[in-house]
What does this fold into?
Amino acid sequence: MMKVSIGAPHGQYEPCGRMGPCGIIGAMCSNYEAVSRADRLLSFFGVVRDRDDPTATVFPTGMAPFIRLAEDGSGQRRVHDGAFGLLPYFAKEIAFGRRTYNARTETVATLPSFRDAWRRSQRCIIPAESIFEPSYETGKAVRWRIYQPGDVPMGIAGIYTKWRDTETGLELYSFAMLTVNAAGHPVMQRFHKAEDEKRMVVILDPADYDSWLTCPLTAAPKFFRQWMGPLESYASPLPPRAPRTHSGKVVAPPKPDEAPGLF
It folds into this structure.
């Protein structure tokens, strides 16, 4: 099966946010494998997609499928493509999503970048074949793949919004994954640095997909819990980048502006 990487313009992988060793971002779930095959989206999530895409590793600002309620009030699920990294109305460019791909459940209702989507109950499901996290058990960062056994994809709880570029008029959906504390989790507590708080995405039970999408806002926090179903993992480093074959100035990606309280 062919696999590609999606993130930033033209499907190329670009470093984003605060990078650690080996191109690993020092935050929760900054890259994952999207469920992009129409048959798997239908079988596991009950949604119809009009095309197949190669299995893709998605990085912040990359486009990937997400699932939300239909706008016609039917209560049916609909699949759309959106940018990984939530874009609030005040975002000036898509690159803003390099800092908003995860939303902590403890602060999703209050932080400016996320609170409008949350208060409007713009909840979604992000279909993932697997997620990737850094392990430091060898003394250095090693990227690991985490997935469910039996070739069963995950449905990750998220929030979404529709964003409009005021300069170009471009409109697109964007989304963020919700995370919870992972202290004591048999798998997820292994990842990230020893001194860092352990976090994990909110993985939904398939039986709860409709309830997550339709429940009143006051009931949504009941889904903020660790997933205790089986998870498997193995080391999966990123392939090395091809060396440059031409001379020229190499410009490091800019660091995002510090904006305390937004994320």
Remarks:
- Residues 1-5, 8-26, 243-260 have pLDDT under 50 and may be disordered.
